[in-house]
Specification:
Distance between the termini of chain B: 25 Å
Number of helices of chain A: 9
Order of helices and strands of chain A: HEHEHHEHEEHEEHHEHEE
Number of domains of chain A: 1
CATH topology of chain A: Alpha-Beta Plaits
Radius of gyration of chain B: 21 Å
Shape of chain B: globular
Oligomer: heterodimer
Structural class of chain B: mainly alpha
CATH architecture of chain A: 2-Layer Sandwich
Strand content of chain B: under 5%
Chain lengths: 263, 389
């Protein structure tokens, strides 16, 4: 009786061990790796960056938010009627929130007349040294070679460490199922997300792969948003940065934001 | 040995049933949270961690109860603690169990929790926190259970357990340090961006854990046959006194740097805590209660006559415990998010569901603790190690 039991346990144990080893052998013995090739039209860069030319964005004062609408429509960003559940990729905020450290009590002239009440476009800065990537425990957010800080919605565990780490408030958790709250026509080309994962702007990686400019850039008729390779001296973004003084949000934190603002 | 937890007095059984009910209510509410998402809590885009992570942070401190007994007993051969090290170790087990449960209920996708093991990421502090917390849990379960088993059989402890005991001492330091590093390394959060965060965590941990332990010892002395002995309790009280003083000192150091430098990114958070900011002052009463409790505790503890008074000591310990609970469990986490890096203020108020889940996990911790203590005390009763010497 005891013998039979011992033998049974031995066999059971070995079977469990065998099952445990299988994934390891599978990983080693994979034959014929699948190669992923990109489209010949894909836009490529050494370092993607965006320039926001606030001087061309004055329509925002009159309620223009074409860029926000284009982004939300392209990415099925849900719209909640309370700020608690909010999901934002690109949005408009006041200059004092976009640049909280630039305050001046006696600001007059251009600052007061033009900038003070102007809604500022803000989005993920795709930092060169992103703290969100540093803290993510599962590499669900990671920096691509071309500088885009990406999100893997299928790996994210929803711990929100990245939200605590981002100094720009660029990240949103899906506090609840976002699908019933997608108010824009559903874009079947882009996945909807499920509750419990973090999301943010990805510089439209999916559009770049097809050779298209980011949706917000394409939507802005005043060309206030310019997107390009900041490492390429002949690019339009470099041209703009050469000709205009520009600032970035919270540069003192050392994250090296790649969204530049021309005031 | 676990079967010893199944029998007991009527009041023990009632207590267990009450705890099971609290855990049950918490669990039902957790199922609701799973179904709806974390939006069922008071957390938001701006205040993205709340009560759960606060409790987790506080309870990592309580888990220090073990090391403050193990270190004097094993490194300094302080025999008086021999009888109660098991209480410290089992309190650590219960605390870390609660810590891990609070992490799990805080995850947006708990079903993916094992991604942390599937994709180990050494540059993430959360990864290391997972390592040190689980390590500390297992160390204390293994050490506590093995030693208790040996005590029951009247056998000397096996040789392999000694290195584990020694390992558990620096390991205890690591859980506070790593948990503090979760906060202290984030560039945009001025409230947490301070090098003294880890020392502060250690200071408050060595006060909150032992103070709870004293309360348990006094309770057991009064209502059971187990007597830790006044010398042990009094020594623990000394530890709490020094730790609380160090803790208050570290906090004052923080206040100096913040208020003398007057850098907005740091000072705005403290203003929010102590006086409120732009009409938002949800945490202000809490913070002042925290300070008053801390001062009362220090006043009562610092005088040896009061500290060694069996009626005053529990009051002092309660003051220490609740003061630090407010500081770590509520103020530390929430204030880091208020104001946000964009200098907006978002109100946070835990929802009933969130409170029920939080209470459920506390219930779970007390359940684990009650069962383990019941086993330990029954064993000690049988071996004659429970009466005072």
């Amino acid at each position: 009786m005891d013998d039979a039991r011992r033998r049974f346990l031995k066999i059971a144990g070995l079977s469990v061990l065998g099952l445990g080893i299988k994934p390891v052998t599978d990983a080693v013995a994979t034959a014929g790796e699948v190669e992923i090739t990109s489209s010949p039209n894909a836009l490529k860069a050494k370092r993607w960056a965006m320039v926001v030319d606030i001087k061309k964005c004055l329509k925002a004062k009159k309620g223009c938010k074409e860029c926000v609408i284009a982004c939300n429509t392209t990415h099925n960003v849900p719209e909640f009627d309370n700020p608690k559940d909010e999901v934002k990729w690109i949005w408009l905020t006041s200059v004092k929130h976009a640049f909280p450290d630039q305050e001046s009590q006696y600001a007059e002239g251009y600052y007061k007349d033009t900038l003070q009440d102007l809604p500022f476009v803000v989005l993920c800065n795709h930092c060169d040294n992103p703290p969100c990537v540093r803290v993510c425990p599962v590499q669900a957010t990671f920096r691509r070679a071309d500088g885009i800080v990406m999100m893997d919605y299928h790996r994210c565990i929803g711990c929100r460490f990245c939200m605590a780490a981002c100094p720009f408030g660029a990240r949103s958790l899906n506090w609840r199922d976002p699908r019933p709250f997608i108010k824009t026509p559903l874009n079947r080309e882009y996945p909807t997300r499920s509750r419990g994962v973090v999301e943010k702007c990805t510089f439209c990686d999916e559009r770049l792969a097809k050779g298209l400019q980011p949706a917000c850039v394409a939507a802005c008729k005043d060309k206030a948003l310019v997107f390009g390779d900041v490492e390429d001296p002949n690019s339009e973004v470099r041209e703009l940065l050469r000709k205009n003084p520009s600032i970035r949000r919270k540069p003192q934190l050392g994250t090296h934001p790649q969204v530049y603002y021309i005031l | 040995m676990l079967e010893k937890a199944l029998t007991g007095s009527r009041s023990y059984k009632v207590w267990i049933v009450v705890l099971l009910a609290i855990v049950g209510i918490g669990f039902v509410n957790y199922l609701r949270q799973l179904d709806y998402g974390l939006g069922i809590t008071g957390m938001s885009r701006d205040v993205s961690w709340g009560l759960y992570i606060g409790q987790f942070t506080f309870l990592v401190g309580v888990a220090a109860s073990a090391v403050m007994l193990v270190l004097p007993y094993y490194l300094h051969n302080y025999k008086v603690f021999g009888k109660i090290t098991i209480l410290g170790e089992f309190l650590a087990v219960a605390s870390v169990t609660m810590c891990l449960s609070f992490i799990i209920v805080d995850l947006g996708k708990p079903q993916r929790a094992f991604n942390v093991l599937l994709h180990p990421t050494p540059n993430s502090i959360l990864f290391w926190d997972m390592v040190v917390l689980n390590g500390y849990l297992f160390l204390n379960i293994i050490i506590g259970w093995t030693l208790l088993g040996c005590e029951r059989r009247g056998a000397p402890p096996p040789k392999w357990v000694k290195p584990l005991i020694y390992l558990s001492i620096p390991w205890a330091v690591s859980i506070h340090t790593v948990t503090a590093f979760l906060y202290a390394g984030l560039p945009g959060r001025g409230f947490w961006l301070t090098a003294i965060m880890a020392p502060r965590f250690l200071g408050s941990a060595f006060a909150s854990g032992p103070s709870l332990l004293i309360l348990f010892c006094l309770f057991l002395r009064k209502f059971t046959k187990f007597d830790a002995g006044w010398e042990a309790i009094s020594s623990l009280a000394k530890i709490v006194t020094y730790a609380m003083l160090v803790s208050v000192f570290f906090f004052l150091c923080e206040l100096f740097t913040v208020y003398y430098s007057q850098i907005p990114e740091h000072i705005l958070h403290f203003n929010y805590l102590f006086q409120g900011l732009h009409g938002h002052s949800e945490l202000t009463p809490w913070m002042w209660i925290c300070i008053v409790l801390a001062l009362v505790a220090v006043g009562l503890l610092i005088n040896p006559k009061w500290r060694n008074n069996e009626k005053i000591l529990p009051i002092a310990c309660l003051c220490v415990f609740f003061s630090l609970w407010i500081e770590k469990g509520i103020a530390l986490v929430l204030t880091g998010f208020i104001p946000s890096p964009l200098e907006t203020i978002t109100r946070y108020m835990p929802t009933p569901t969130e409170l029920a889940i939080t209470l459920g996990i506390w219930g779970l911790g007390f359940l684990v603790l009650s069962v383990l203590y019941k086993v330990a005390l029954t064993v000690k009763e049988q071996t004659g190690d429970s009466a005072s010497h």
